[in-house]
Amino acid sequence: MPPSPSKPVRIAVTGAAGNIGYALLFRLASGALLGPDQPLILHLLEIPQALPALSGVAMELTDCAFPLLRDLKLSDQASQAFDGVDYAFLVGSRPRTQGMERKDLLRVNAEIFKAQGRALNERASRQVRILVVGNPANTNALIASRNAPDLAEHQFSSMMRLDHNRTLSLLSERSRIPVADIHRVTVWGNHSSTQFPDIEQALIADRPALEQIDSTWYHDTLIPTVQQRGAAIIKARGASSAASAASAALDHMRDWIVGTPKGTWTSMGIAANGDYGVEPGIFFGYPVECQGGGHQIVQGLALSEFARAKIALTDRELREERDGVLDLLPSSSRG
Ligand code: NAX
Fold first, then answer.
1. Bridge partners, residue 131, by sequence
2. CA distance 29 to 67
3. What is the mean pLDDT of residues 279-301?
4. What is the mean pLDDT of the chain?
5. Do 108 and 237 reside in the same domain of the chain?
6. Could you confirm whether 219 is annotated as catalytic?
7. Does 120 have pLDDT greater than 60?
8. Binding site membership of 241 for ligand 1 (Cβ less than 6 Å)
9. pLDDT at residue 155, rounded to an integer
10. How is 231-251 classified by DSSP, letter by letter?
11. Residue whose CA is at the smallest distance from ligand 1 atom 42
12. What's the number of CA atoms in the CB half-sphere (13 Å) around residue 236?
């Protein structure tokens, strides 16, 4: 018997004509997120100037004749693009241009994510899951979430998974143990150079990582390499990491939907509730277990003084980012 046709799910991608969009859309349409039996409709949002480029991407998607791809909707209006969507990848954002201060970048993007939060609140499925990739991702997620009072805070997340995957991969290279046998890595805090890739709880082939990895390499090589990896890729490639970011976005969303394997966890930016001394409300990279479509912070980890200091540093940066956009943050009371 052929599988019974299931209802298509609706997936929004913003910044769909950009680099990450180009790496993400074809994998989504081929079933990389929800498997080979789940049809989907892609809702693609761009700014008006990028609609011609987006129509080219749409032609290519059509030319792939993906059996799962039932429809494509292109728009420059967030309210149209988010209509009824079950999943939203918020990738599009304004890049930093020459002479632009970091705080100006924060402000222009804050306005974008305020408007998109409102549109998601009005138009998305009530069960929508939202992943913010566009930088500054953690604070953009905070803004979108606070401007969507009818959706729950836990429906929003920001991407730390690229940093998490980079950490796994460096550990694998160093220990010569496959990535699949490395567990309990965490990237805490902001997706920025203050992030803290933490291997103090990690297991490599079921044994503590710190018994196998020397602490000098951990402190002086692994941490700065992960923190600076984005810049290193731009320098080498002349363009930012797009394929690995798209892959990480799929990993993030898939774990959220399907669950993290038993005995391990992933890193996700989620609204802090004070756990591990982090300022409540800010979106912070935490060790997270996903189950039954939800996520929760891993509890009870014993943190070293070194880890606490690193977490405090990235927490401080996120508070400062939040303080720069306070006027765009309605109170957190939700409907
Ligand atoms: P691109 O500049 O190639 O693409 C961005 C696209 O977003 C453009 O096509 C632009 O027209 C569109 N856009 C701008 N404003 C928009 C709006 N209001 N609504 C809809 N679309 C809009 O950048 P790309 O390399 O794709 O990166 C996208 C974002 O991901 C950047 O902010 C980047 O910094 C961020 N990243 C985040 C990562 C993370 O781990 N959280 C890692 C990768 C990446 O650096």
1. 89, 157
2. 8
3. 97
4. 95
5. no
6. no
7. yes
8. yes
9. 98
10. HHHHHHHSS---HHHHHHHHH
11. 245
12. 7
**β-strand partners of 196:** 188
> Mutate which of 74, 93, 163, 227 to test ligand 1's pocket (most atoms within 8 Å of Cβ)?
93
CATH number of the structural domain spanning residue 49: 3.40.50.720
Average pLDDT over residues 283-301: 97
For 38-55, what is the mean pLDDT?
98
For residue 333, the model assigns a pLDDT of 60
The CA 261 to ligand 1 mean position distance, Å, reads: 30
Q: Are 11 and 41 spatial neighbours (Cβ–Cβ below 8 Å)? A: yes
Residue 332 lies in a domain: no
So what's the pLDDT on residue 3?
A: 38
pLDDT for 331 equals 76
- Which of 134, 158, 182 is the last residue in one of the domains? 158
- Going from the Cα of 93 to the center of ligand 1, the distance in angstroms, rounded, reads 4
- Compute the average pLDDT of residues 255-265: 95
Is this structure's pTM higher than 0.90? yes
Identify the pLDDT of residue 96.
76
**Could you give the maximum distance between any two Cα atoms of the chain, in Å?**
62
Is the CB–ligand 1 distance for residue 40 below 6 Å? no
Give every CB contact of residue 123 below 8 A, 6+ residues apart in sequence.
79, 82, 83, 84, 85
Cβ 18 under 6 angstroms from ligand 1:
yes
Ligand 1 centroid to residue 327 C-alpha, Å: 24
